[in-house]
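Catalogue entry: protein

Sequence with per-residue tokens
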Amino acid sequence: MAEEFHKPTMFPSAVFEAYQGGIDPAESSRIAHETSHALLSRVRADPDVDIVERLVSYTDEHGIDAIADLWSHASARSLPGALWRIYLLRVIIRQDPVSSSFYFERGVAVTRTIDPVVAGAEAPTGPDEITALADQILRGLFDGDFAVALDRAAAFCRVASAGCTSVADDLDLTEPERSSELTRRALRYSTIAAELTSCARLWRSESLD
């Protein structure tokens, strides 16, 4: 399969706007679960630094399609579903770190929760810091506390959602189309946050399949 993905596949923002929770056919579900469990078990049993770094940067070389083929249709509250969402978030952040950091910083300014602390981004959070956060979260799935990594990603999504909502409110009268786009993006972030939080809870109870 690697030969088919020599260059990273750009992930259009419109696809993220249209994101919905996955509904998986039986065969796709079986493959997704088997591959995700095999990968995670192998790496976490022996978290070799080089292997972990290759997994973190996998989509940089092969594109998001290679991951999507395996896990994007898995149930949102499953191991492959969780892995897919973390990779998806990393691709979105790395493709536009300027916007990602801007919405995150706005979210930090307007939220009244501990989510910015849970997410763990360095402050102030610019493009470099938000990119580093994405890498840290993904790396944490393989060589850290898996549930904590999911919680950090969920917190990032809630902060980004708050930021998108705040900017959407600012643009409601002057740029209604852009405002609607950001409102949809906020909803997607919020949805992913809820899904990842559920996955973290299932992982802690040893029932994330």
